[in-house]
TrEMBL record:
Positions of the 4Fe-4S domain: 1-59
Cofactor binding description: Binds 1 [4Fe-4S] cluster.
The reaction(s) this protein catalyses: 5,6,7,8-tetrahydrosarcinapterin + methyl-Co(III)-[corrinoid Fe-S protein] = 5-methyltetrahydrosarcinapterin + Co(I)-[corrinoid Fe-S protein] + H(+)
NCBIfam families, sorted: PRK04165.1
Keyword Oxidoreductase among UniProt keywords: yes
Name of the protein this chain belongs to: Acetyl-CoA decarbonylase/synthase complex subunit gamma
Matches recorded under SUPFAM superfamilies: Dihydropteroate synthetase-like
Gene: cdh
């Protein structure tokens, strides 16, 4: 159950002193409930009430950091089962595997590919988060040598071996970089938990398809003093994908709804299992891996290990991640201001659109690909698209005129003609009245703008 602002308010000092930066304790409680404020911002809150609130506000799923430095990645932290109830925090970390039996050149090439894979979507750079180093050779010395190759690499590491000796050897090399230890099992849990405590590293608990046993072993790990645990109930594919998803859902329900301390941890998925019995055509295996990853990301996977590293395989996975982890309460937006495209001068056309990120990047892409030279005025509509902003009243004459004044567009061009989207035709008169400019109603689709300008400009 999500903690409400009223639950929080009951434990606040209720003096409305304003030292937290809010007008009242109730306003501060509302901010805390939305994770938009820190408890420590209230200097009057101390002792038992502070402790009680800190526990109450601890996320249902523990936040765990893997790696160190700028590329360290945090997983978990979620509060709810459904995104519309709040939002999802800390996007799923996507790792790609490397094996300790790869030759140096193949190892280095794949490592570079993993580190450098990135692309931009709606203004955000999407990239991979970690390397999963597998002890495929079964040899502790080889595992250690492979770990050495990652020692100076900034990317976080997941060390994969069920052999405590091999894990110990690799941790001796990169234990200080806070890798995720994968994995403790029923057979090695004592040795692996000792290693996790010795190196202060998070540890994954692998208990295939048996949540009762997972509960027992999770408790055992916690009682040994380990705090940062990641749960892997096994990734089964084909007809068994339903069982995998059921396990993931059950773990998250137990964490969020039951606050079961043995399950309040991030979940790990391994879509790379698709490569155990690969399809004849490698492309099909990669597609299978990507769809498995997408399905499990939809069902609470907080960290995933994949094998393929082609951009076409990663694009749907990382794009889905971006969509799932966008705060549904806040439309994505760009800065409202004047943007220049191509080479502009005093004769350049002036076009207006809204600051909804998807709208802006679609328009920008069309202007760039059409090699259009123009000024683009981006209106603050609280991140709403053109038709929604017109209907909601944010795209209006007054707002448009104010933006034109603020940006000083009058001084940049020697004409007074403004092109607005076809979807904003109904406010053209209002903009003319408020701005004194001639308003030209443009196309409904920005892909038609280059051809439209060629005709009228
Ligand atoms: S600082 Fe504390 S007591 Fe003062 S208004 Fe904020 S929450 Fe209330």
């Amino acid at each position: 159950m999500k903690v409400t602002a009223m639950d929080i308010y009951k434990l606040l000092p209720k003096t409305n002193c304003g030292k937290c930066g809010e007008a009242s304790c109730m306003a501060f409680a509302a901010k805390l409930s939305q994770k938009e404020a820190e408890l420590s911002a209230c200097p009057q809150l101390k002792g038992a009430d502070f402790e009680k609130l800190a526990n109450m506000l601890a996320p249902a799923v523990r936040e765990i950091k893997i790696g160190t430095g700028d590329r360290a990645v945090t997983i978990g932290g979620d509060e709810v089962l459904y995104r519309y109830e709040l939002t999802y925090y800390n996007p799923t970390a996507v790792a790609v595997d490397l094996s300790d039996d790869m030759d140096d050149s193949a190892f280095d090439q794949k490592l570079v590919k993993i580190k450098n894979l990135e692309f931009e979507r709606t203004g955000e750079i999407l990239k991979l988060n970690a390397v999963a180093l597998r002890n495929k050779s079964g040899d502790a010395e080889k595992f250690k040598k492979a770990a050495e190759k990652l020692k100076d690499s900034e990317i976080p590491v997941i060390l994969c071996s069920f052999d405590p000796k091999a894990m110990d050897a690799a941790l001796d090399v990169i234990g200080s970089k806070r890798p995720l230890i994968y994995a403790a099992t029923e057979n090695n849990i004592d040795e692996m938990s000792e290693l996790a405590l010795k190196h202060n590293c998070p540890i994954s608990l692998f208990v295939p398809n048996d949540l009762e046993k997972m509960k027992q072993l999770s408790r055992k790990l916690r009682e040994s003093g380990v705090k940062d645990i990641v749960l892997d109930p096994g990734t089964y594919i084909g007809e068994a994908i339903g069982d995998t998803m059921d396990n993931f859902i059950m773990i998250r329900r137990l964490a969020v709804e039951e606050k079961d301390d043995d399950f309040r941890f991030p979940i790990l998925a391994v879509p790379a299992v698709c490569w155990i019995n690969p399809e004849e055509d490698e492309i099909l295996t990669k597609m299978k891996e990507a769809t498995t990853a997408a399905a499990l990301m939809n069902r609470y996977a907080d960290v995933m290990i994949l094998h393929g590293v082609d951009i076409w395989e990663m694009m749907p996975v990382l794009t889905l991640r971006q969509s799932l982890y966008t705060d549904p309460r806040k439309p994505q937006s760009v800065e409202a201001k004047i943007y220049e495209f191509g080479t502009v001068d005093e004769n350049s056309p002036v076009i207006m659109t809204t600051n909804f990120a998807l709208t802006y990047y679609t328009v920008a892409g069309d202007l760039k690909s059409g090699k259009v030279n123009c000024y683009l005025l981006v209106l603050d509509t609280n991140g709403k698209a053109v038709d929604v902003a017109v209907a909601g009243g944010q795209f209006n004459g007054k707002a448009a005129a104010e933006l034109m004044k603020e940006t000083g567009i009058e001084k940049l061009v020697n004409h007074k003609k403004l092109i607005i989207p076809g979807l904003a035709a109904s406010v053209s008169g209002d903009i003319e009245d408020q701005s004194g400019w001639e308003v030209i109603v443009g196309t409904r689709d920005s892909s038609e703008v280059p051809a439209f300008l060629a005709k009228i400009w």
